Amino acid sequence: MSDTKKTFIEKVSNCLCPPGNGVFTVNTAKERKEALHQSIYGQTDNIDTLWRDSLEHIESSEYKAVTLGISSDCGGGILRGANWGPLFLRSTLMEQQPNSKTFDLGDVRVIPHLLHDKYLNDGTISNCQKALYQDESSEYHVSPLSITEDVCDDFYANFPNKGIFGIGGDHSISYPLTKSYLKAKRAAGKRTAIIHFDAHTDLLVERLGIDLCFGSWCTHILEFLPAPHHLIQFGIRSSGKDKNHWESTFGVKQHWAHEIREQGAQAIVDGVIAQLKADNVDELYVSFDIDALDATFAAATGTPEYDGMTPDEAMLILNALAKEFPITGADMMEIAPFTDASHSGKQASESTLREGAKISALLIDAMNSTK
């Protein structure tokens, strides 16, 4: 193993933790965490050692999709709870989609009050380094967005033929995930596009003075795309401004939920495929906010919206894209299992997780099938 890969594994073993452990708790969800560990490792004790030992096998893994959980909802701000997404979605995938497998890198170690290191003073960073790494002068970052970008940058540098499947968490997390992906692909000479499913545009410049959050992350990755219209959005319907405003202001391409219903998903995706081919796009990254789906199917999320896409529409679009282009990176965001604005309780959580797992499995299988 090269020195750079050894350095990467050392970083991961410090900045990450075993799958499902990203939410720091004592007893909460203990049984669910143990069930996940049993499924992954065949036991529930000595998990830290087993996880660290597994990191030596990233390169030799047969899977091109590598899962990274980021259990942070600090960049959200409506209804919180998406920090439980990585644990619950992993469990649902293993139970309901057992044939869709990845190498599991683990979870980012999250201090739940932090977002990005640039918002912190030196004293706070030092205190947090002491808490996370027992070293107040550590070289490692302390905030989830900062840790994620650092780890992903090194991941793509060391394993260019593999891709990250990120599980959030709120949608701010897609900022470091996509930024690292786009930088790596640009360096490799690949033309890329971001396929973004969401009820919301996420094209604010800032929200309440914070520039990196769930409502603004798209704005800040545009500069890393070959062109702004390589950000293609599906399912938009909750916006204070119309489609023309967003497309003319930012140069992105949008397909609102009502257009998909009126024109049909197949017609919409046929047009997108033609656009991508005309732009000579080589690879795709798919970022999926579960609230792209109508709240009838996905109410356990921070900002559920009705009049949205059906799971069948989303699956049709994704299957069509995967047949034409390699999907080499993806994420599933904003599943909040304990949060249900529709007040239908457990049923909403189960439905949201079920649909999220189906779409995640499609994305994982697409990533694993790339050549």
UniProtKB/TrEMBL annotation:
It comes from the Bacteria. GO terms for molecular function: agmatinase activity; metal ion binding. Pfam families: Arginase. Keywords: Hydrolase, Metal-binding. GO terms for biological process: putrescine biosynthetic process from arginine, via agmatine. PANTHER family: ARGINASE/AGMATINASE, GUANIDINO ACID HYDROLASE, MITOCHONDRIAL. Belongs to the arginase family. This is Arginase. The lineage of its organism: Bacteria, Pseudomonadati, Pseudomonadota, Gammaproteobacteria, Alteromonadales.
